[in-house]
Specification:
Strand order of the largest sheet: 1-2-4-3-6-7-9
Order of helices and strands: EEEHEEHEHEHEHEH
Low-confidence stretches: none
Helix content: 25-40%
Strand content: 15-25%
Distance between the termini: 37 Å
Shape: globular
């Protein structure tokens, strides 16, 4: 189902189109792209925005518009956002999902392969360059952070920087709240407004939303994410010129996250 674009005036430099990956020619991916501007003969990097699981590329369009409008004099780099198969304006499903268990046809590793193919084709067709010549800056949200990190690991030397916004913990099953069934659980450590019964209830609610085995509309299988990225601190990533990529992590605002949790899960703010 097509999702309306945000009700803002987008700059003319930001173009919207579809593309068939050469590795999956029977399906189309919807993307938004700005070629970049400036006095340099060639761009210094490509900025790629990666969606979370519950959002689509329309959330990035105001950001891209701001980058373009705020850098008309100095110039801005090429910008790319896209909707993965089965997400946002990309109505087509991943062709490799056919014949597989519904909702579990492709995983993060497959999505990273698609991302690399998309970047390769757009670098060639839109920028007349290659992924080896044009370093990437990833701006990612949630599960998109996992894809960015896995991309940087699998394509050493290609990623110059990563900006993680509300990144998920790849090497976990999202069971981050105390387990009342654990042998070392002490109910005395709970906040005053949280009972053991409330804790059990909230753990169950969170699991129905975030647990890796929960099927999502996109059909992205997340059950093996912890196997793909088992460690938070290795392997070390290698960026252009042998340098390590610049990594910046922006976490949830604690008060807003508590407020949203209260609204979505009816969870105590504490």
């Amino acid at each position: 189902m097509a999702i309306p674009q945000p009700a803002i005036m987008l700059p003319r430099e930001l173009q919207h189109d579809t593309i068939a990956l050469e590795s999956k020619p029977s399906a189309l991916i919807h993307y938004s792209f700005a070629k970049g501007s400036g006095s340099q003969e060639s761009p210094h990097w490509l900025v790629v925005f990666l969606n979370g699981l519950m959002t689509d590329k329309s959330t990035w369009l105001p950001v891209m518009a701001g980058v373009i409008r705020g850098n008309q004099d100095a110039g801005f780099p090429p910008l790319l956002a896209y909707d993965r198969f089965g997400q946002g304006l990309t109505d087509d499903r991943d062709p490799q999902d056919q014949g597989r268990e519904p909702g579990r046809g492709h995983d993060v590793s497959d999505a990273v392969q698609d991302l690399h193919q998309l970047i390769t084709q757009l670098c060639r067709d839109k920028l007349e360059t290659t992924t080896e010549q044009l370093p990437i800056v990833f701006v990612a949200n949630s599960i998109g952070c996992v894809m960015a990190r896995l991309y940087a690991e699998r394509h050493p030397g290609s990623v110059a920087a990563l900006l993680f916004l509300d990144s998920i913990m790849a090497n976990s099953d999202f069971d981050w709240w105390p387990d009342p069934e654990s042998h070392d659980f002490d109910p005395k450590n709970l906040p005053a407004d949280v009972t053991v019964e409330v804790l059990r209830e909230q753990r169950a609610k969170i699991a129905t939303i975030f647990a890796p085995d929960v099927i999502n509309k996109e059909g992205l299988d997340r059950r093996n994410v912890a196997d793909l990225l088992p460690y938070s601190d290795r392997p070390l990533l290698r960026g252009p010129g042998g340098r390590r990529p610049l990594v910046t992590v922006v976490e949830h605002d604690a008060e807003r996250f508590a407020s949203e949790s209260l609204e979505v899960c009816v969870a105590p703010c504490s």
